[in-house]
Amino acid sequence: MKYYFLISILVLFNLLMAQNQIPPQDESFDPLQLHEPSLPFLDGSMIYEIITDIKEPGEKEAQNSDTLRVVKKMGYKVQLFSTTDFFKADTIYLKAVNDFIDQDVVKDFNSPYYKIRLGNCITREEAEALLNRALALRYRDAWIIRTPIKTEERFISY
Q: What is the pTM for the complete model shown?
């Protein structure tokens, strides 16, 4: 019994002493000596494009040209379906994309619900026509919701 106690103390002592040894580290690497080209994220050239999803026009393009830009404002959408089941929502989403080729169909996730929404209607009348079309295609849970929508606006610069 004394031998086991003495051996266990020696083993623990050796383990504690082994923890104090720190291996040497190689610090010869210097990233400043690589001479890599600047990343577009670091010099700010791609930041505008990533945030807005619009490429900045060059000086020649910006003069005397009109462009479309996407603006978010309040409008109407038709909510086709709402569920907590991801797979059911995905099935309805794919069916809606096929049924409404000419409309913008989105799948929103507001915890815990997946919502399938359709259209970017500026007026209530447009949304009602879209709702009637959805009801004719047997989307029984469809209804109109007032929500932010994306619309295109002509931007003229001189």
A: 0.55
